[in-house]
Structure formats: structure tokens, C-alpha cells
């Protein structure tokens, strides 16, 4: 699946585009809107983003997990080669698990403190009061969505991301 990004100036346009997409076969769960006007989104029944889509928590946690694994393996190798420590299998497993959990926890905290890397490019427009429509489409739906939104002439195409995980 791909995620298509469209910017619009009015929340009414986002509502209208969302309704037209649903009429034309796009599932409501595949249409999201990012806006400063959270009250307007609720009254218009537009899907917002959840915390995992707005922030980089998952990416940060995975990076922390990898760094924790690297530190654990490096510490075990250095401890064995340099200092001659011999660890039992349970001790090695426990040490690695502890560092993996700690790295994941720290990475998750860092991820909660930063915006999603895919959405950073739109922060200026969102802060200026524009609204970002995100539409998740399959290959066979992409051209129909582009055509429909071009006909409506209410939003500007602003990019896409491949490999959207839903």
C-alpha cells in the first residue's frame, strides 16, 4: 500500500474529499486528516491520527532495541576476550535481555519526544492552518484517487510514501 498526501486550506474541503472517497470505494479507515483544528475534525467525523502515527515511538523503540543488542554483544565479546570472563548461557541471555529491554525503553522514550519522520515535512503547513489528508491506497486505487481529487480541485498533491504498514 501507498500513503498519498494532500494539503487543503479548509477543513470543509477535507470533509468533502473524505466523503467522496468513501462513496467511491475507499474505506474510511484508510483516510486520515492531520490538523490543528481538532474540534472541527470531531464535529465533521474525520479520522485523526493515533499516537503511534503522530510520533516516532515504534521507530525509536526498534532503534533502541538494535543499539541494546549491539551493546550487549560488544560487552560480552570484550568481557570474554579482554578480561577472560566466562559466562554461562543463562547469564549471557539475562544480560542481553536486560540491555535489550533497557535500549527499547530508552528508544521508545526518545521516539515519544519526536514527531513521525514521514510527517515532519508538513509541520510548517499544519501550523499555518492547513489540513493534511493522508489516504492509504492499493496499486489499483491510486490513479482513481488522484483523478477524483484533481476533479474536486480542493486539495493539492503533496507527496507519497511507499510501504505503509496498516
Note down, in words, how this protein is organized.
With 166 residues, the protein is of the alpha+beta class. 56% of the residues lie in helices and 15% in strands. It has 7 helices and 4 strands. It has a 4-stranded antiparallel sheet, covered by helices on one side. The radius of gyration is 22 Å and the shape is elongated. It starts with a strand and ends with a strand.
Mean pLDDT: 90
What class, by secondary structure content? alpha+beta
Give the distance, in angstroms, between the N- and C-terminal Cα atoms: 9 Å
Largest sheet: 4 strands, antiparallel
**Which strand order does the major sheet show?**
2-3-1-4
Along the chain, the helix and strand elements come as: EHEHHHHHEHE
Tell how many strands the DSSP assignment holds: 4
Helical fraction: 55-70%
- How many separate helices? 7
Poorly predicted sequence stretches spanning 5 or more consecutive residues: none
Determine the strand fraction and express it as a percent band: 15-25%
List keywords for this structure.
166 residues, alpha+beta, four-stranded antiparallel β-sheet, 7 helices, 15% strand
Write the topology of this structure.
Elements: E1 2-8, H1 11-23, E2 31-34, H2 38-43, H3 51-54, H4 57-83, H5 89-112, H6 123-127, E3 131-137, H7 139-152, E4 156-162
Antiparallel strand pairs: 1-3, 1-4, 2-3
Helix pairs in contact: 4-5
Amino acid at each position: 500500500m501507498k500513503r498519498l498526501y494532500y494539503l487543503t486550506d479548509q477543513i470543509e474541503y477535507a470533509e468533502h474529499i473524505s466523503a467522496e472517497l468513501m462513496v467511491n470505494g475507499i474505506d474510511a479507515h484508510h483516510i486520515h486528516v492531520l490538523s490543528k483544528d481538532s474540534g472541527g475534525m470531531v464535529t465533521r467525523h474525520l479520522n485523526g491520527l493515533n499516537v503511534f502515527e503522530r510520533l516516532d515511538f515504534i521507530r525509536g523503540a526498534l532503534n533502541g532495541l538494535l543499539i541494546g543488542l549491539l551493546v550487549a554483544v560488544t560487552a560480552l565479546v570484550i568481557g570474554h576476550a579482554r578480561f577472560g570472563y566466562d559466562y554461562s548461557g543463562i547469564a549471557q541471555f539475562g544480560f542481553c535481555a536486560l540491555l535489550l529491554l533497557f535500549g527499547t525503553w530508552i528508544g521508545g522514550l526518545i521516539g515519544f519526544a519526536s514527531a513521525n519522520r514521514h510527517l515532519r515535512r508538513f509541520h510548517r503547513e499544519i501550523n499555518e492552518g492547513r489540513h493534511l489528508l493522508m489516504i492509504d491506497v492499493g496499486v489499483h486505487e491510486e490513479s482513481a484517487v488522484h483523478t477524483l481529487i484533481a476533479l474536486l480541485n480542493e486539495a493539492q498533491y503533496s507527496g507519497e510514501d511507499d510501504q505503509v504498514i496498516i
